[in-house]
Amino acid sequence: MLRTYRAIGLMSGTSMDGIDVAAIETDGETVSRFGPSALHPYAENEVALLRAAVDAAVGLTDRKQRPGVIGQAERMVTALHAGAVRGFLDAHGIDPASIDVIGFHGQTILHRPEARLTAQIGDGQALADETGIPVVYDLRAEDVAVGGQGAPLVPVYHRALVNMLDRPRPVAVLNIGGVANVTFIDGAGDPWACDTGPGNALIDDFMRARAGASRDENGGAGARGKVDDGAVARVLAHPFFALKPPKSLDRNAFREWVAEQAAVSEMKVEDGAATLTAITAATIAAVVPQLPKAPRTWIVCGGGASNPTLMRMLRERLSPASVEAADAVGWSADAIEAQAFAYLAVRSMRGLPITFPTTTGVAAPMTGGVLVEPRGRKVKKSF
Ligand SMILES: Nc1ncnc2c1ncn2[C@@H]1O[C@H](COP(=O)(O)OP(=O)(O)OP(=O)(O)O)[C@@H](O)[C@H]1O
Ligand SMILES: CC(=O)N[C@H]1[C@@H]2OC[C@@H](O2)[C@@H](O)[C@@H]1O[C@H](C)C(=O)O
């Protein structure tokens, strides 16, 4: 039997709401125990620095460059992650020596796989030194370097979760973060996956600009507004939605297209929120014809599962399939991505594949990630 590892995963997603932290026990195949999880929220000034780094990264041609504000943001990201780990261990009375590895995603500041460029800021070595725990980081780089999409990475973890669940297949696991992505699981083969389009990013940006709020709390504004169906149809005409998987997106990929096609800035706040929520639901539903079969079960995770207006619109568009929030099937919607990076770190240590031809478009299943030990010593992957 394979050894079980205690791993912590850290994810700072595209919506920049904070650092998700979660602990699991796994051998890299099955999950034997789900530990605690937490969100370490970013303060407004921290979000501002992250946004500045994303803006500054537009012109980067080398993923290792850290000019100006990007370097500043990276130091902050590393320090905040180290603080988040310490706080998490303290809060749950976990001895750092009992943790085998940390899976560290970092913050994506640039993702242009077509140019073989993806950049996640966060210094894995410094995090290992700060916490005294081995760290696996830079999990997207190898995939992108050989021509893969570098995202999504979570599907192999979704497969592990679905294998523990009794639901009619095919099952689609939908993650609605800043961007939305789906994993399709039918038989025992490799998972299928792709990004579907915008997640919460359009709604969040609109609420920030128009209502001074970071999101449409519980879908309240969207529930009161009227959907502009013409705007939804115009947005769906973008060629991305007709592309076959694998395909992945930058968080801001649709910002201008939606602004032009949907003209939400001219709408009342409620109507704009309703229309953007409908656009998000419609672009997710548009992936169904691109999948090998229509899923019978959808399980929704990520922050979007907490928006009841979005969930209602998804149910309408995905019917007759069942649409359940991840929490309703016993998973922790908010913790799945962080758990996934814990799982991916263990797979990386064991040299198991983390991406597949059907998830990122690589030629053959491949592993990824860089393992570093505390005190600056790079170690061989010999687990
Ligand atoms: N109660 C709520 N009401 C409305 N929206 C919510 C609620 N809770 C979370 N969200 C949405 O979920 C978002 C956060 O989602 P999540 O943490 O899954 O994103 P992420 O992990 O940062 O992104 P990604 O998966 O793209 O990297 C928030 O920005 C918000 O839009
Ligand atoms: C490049 C990057 O950071 N992509 C994120 C983003 O946020 C959601 C979607 O776009 C997904 O492709 C990915 O994250 C998840 C965790 C993944 O790789 O599975």
TrEMBL record:
ATP binds at residues 13-20. Its EC number is 2.7.1.170. Keywords: ATP-binding, Carbohydrate metabolism, Kinase, Nucleotide-binding, Transferase. Pathway: Amino-sugar metabolism; 1,6-anhydro-N-acetylmuramate degradation; Cell wall biogenesis; peptidoglycan recycling. GO terms for molecular function: ATP binding; kinase activity; phosphotransferase activity, alcohol group as acceptor. It holds the Pfam family AnmK. It is an enzyme of class 2 (transferase). It catalyses: 1,6-anhydro-N-acetyl-beta-muramate + ATP + H2O = N-acetyl-D-muramate 6-phosphate + ADP + H(+). One of its GO terms (biological process) is amino sugar metabolic process. It comes from the Bacteria. Gene3D superfamilies: 3.30.420.40. NCBIfam families: PRK09585.1-5. Belongs to the anhydro-N-acetylmuramic acid kinase family. HAMAP family: AnhMurNAc_kinase. This is Anhydro-N-acetylmuramic acid kinase. It comes from Pseudorhodoplanes sinuspersici. The lineage of its organism: Bacteria, Pseudomonadati, Pseudomonadota, Alphaproteobacteria, Hyphomicrobiales.
